[in-house]
C-alpha cells in the first residue's frame, strides 16, 4: 500500500489514495492499528483514506490509531486538502470533503505563490447533550459539567465539532496535567456514550490560549484541530476569550475564528514528511 506521511501541527497521519490502492474489503480497524503503530508500523495518530464521493469532491475516511473510526478530523482535513492539490488529484484550491460529520470545506492559503497553510470552514458547533453526545436531557447544554477523576472534580464544557469534545479550563499550567492518567478516565466516563476527546486549556489573554489534548481513540497527540475549535468556542461561550484566538498546542499553533454566522474557521499548517510503501500483511 503506497502512502504519504503528513502532519498538521504535529498531529500526524498516513494518507492513502483510495483511487489507486485497493481499499474495498480491507479490514480498516486492523489496518489502522497496524499502520499507526509507532514500533511495528509507520507510526501515526490516524490512517486517512481519500476516496471517491457522490456528494462532494472527495470523501475522507479517518481511522484512529486504536482502529476506531472518527467522524471528523480537523488537522487531517488540512493535510488532505494540500495532498489532493500537490498529488494532482485536483487543481481546485478549495474543495468539499465528505465526512461522517457532513461536508467540510478546506481552502489552501498561498504566500508568495506557494502554499503556506490551509483554512478550513469547520461548520457550526453543537451544544445540546443529545448532539454531543452526553448523557442527560437531550435538549440541555453542557456547561460547567463536573467529572470526578481520582478524587479531583474537573468542570468541563461539552461541544460537538463533528466529533465530541469536553473542554476543561484550568488556572494551573496545563503543561503539568498528566494526560495519560487523567485523559482516558474522562474519555471513557459514563457521561459520554460515544466516549470523548478531552481538552485542557489555559487562557493567556483574550486572544491567546494554550491547549493540550487527550484524543479519543488516539491518546496524547500534539494537536487536535476539532479540539482547538471546540476550545475557542467554549472559551468564547463562557466569556473567557474572544471569538478569534490563536491557540498554542504541543506541536504548533492554530488560529480559530468563530464567525458571526456561527461557522468556525481554522487556519494552520499541513506538511508532507515522507512517502513510502507499506507491506500490509492482514
Ligand atoms: N486529531 C483530530 C481528531 C481525530 C479524531 C478524534 N480522535 C476522534 O475520535 O474524535 C483533529 O485534528 O480534529
Automatic annotation (TrEMBL):
It catalyses: (2S,6S)-2,6-diaminopimelate = meso-2,6-diaminopimelate. It holds the Pfam family DAP_epimerase. Substrate binds at residues 11, 64, 74-75, 163, 197, 215-216, 225-226. Keywords: Amino-acid biosynthesis, Cytoplasm, Isomerase, Lysine biosynthesis. Its EC number is 5.1.1.7. PANTHER family: DIAMINOPIMELATE EPIMERASE (PTHR31689:SF0), DIAMINOPIMELATE EPIMERASE, CHLOROPLASTIC (PTHR31689). Belongs to the diaminopimelate epimerase family. This is Diaminopimelate epimerase. The lineage of its organism: Bacteria, Bacillati, Bacillota, Negativicutes, Acetonemataceae. The gene is dapF.
Amino acid at each position: 500500500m503506497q502512502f504519504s506521511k503528513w502532519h498538521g501541527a504535529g498531529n500526524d497521519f498516513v494518507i492513502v489514495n483510495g483511487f489507486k490502492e485497493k481499499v474495498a474489503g480491507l479490514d480498516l480497524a486492523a489496518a489502522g492499528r497496524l499502520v499507526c503503530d509507532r514500533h511495528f508500523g509507520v507510526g501515526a495518530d490516524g490512517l486517512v483514506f481519500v476516496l471517491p464521493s457522490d456528494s462532494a469532491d472527495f470523501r475522507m475516511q479517518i481511522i484512529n490509531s486504536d482502529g476506531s473510526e472518527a467522524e471528523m478530523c480537523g488537522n487531517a482535513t488540512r493535510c488532505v486538502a494540500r495532498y489532493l492539490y500537490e498529488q494532482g488529484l485536483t487543481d481546485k484550491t478549495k474543495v468539499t470533503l465528505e465526512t461522517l460529520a457532513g461536508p467540510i470545506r478546506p481552502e489552501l492559503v498561498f504566500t508568495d505563490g506557494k502554499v503556506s497553510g490551509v483554512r478550513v470552514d469547520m461548520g457550526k458547533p453543537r451544544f445540546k447533550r443529545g448532539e454531543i453526545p452526553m448523557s442527560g436531557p437531550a435538549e440541555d447544554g453542557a456547561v460547567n459539567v463536573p467529572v470526578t477523576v481520582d478524587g479531583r472534580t474537573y468542570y468541563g464544557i461539552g461541544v460537538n465539532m463533528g466529533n465530541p469534545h469536553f473542554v476543561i479550563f484550568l488556572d494551573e499550567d496545563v503543561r503539568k496535567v498528566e494526560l495519560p492518567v487523567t485523559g482516558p478516565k474522562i474519555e471513557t466516563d459514563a457521561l459520554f456514550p460515544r466516549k470523548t476527546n478531552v481538552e485542557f486549556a489555559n487562557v493567556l489573554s483574550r486572544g491567546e490560549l494554550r491547549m493540550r489534548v487527550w484524543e479519543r481513540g488516539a491518546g496524547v497527540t500534539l494537536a487536535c484541530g476539532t479540539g482547538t475549535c471546540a476550545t475557542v468556542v467554549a472559551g468564547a461561550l463562557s466569556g473567557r476569550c474572544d471569538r478569534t484566538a490563536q491557540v498554542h498546542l504541543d506541536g504548533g499553533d492554530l488560529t480559530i475564528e468563530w464567525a458571526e454566522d456561527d461557522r468556525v474557521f481554522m487556519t494552520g499548517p499541513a506538511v508532507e514528511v515522507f512517502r513510502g510503501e507499506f507491506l500490509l500483511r492482514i
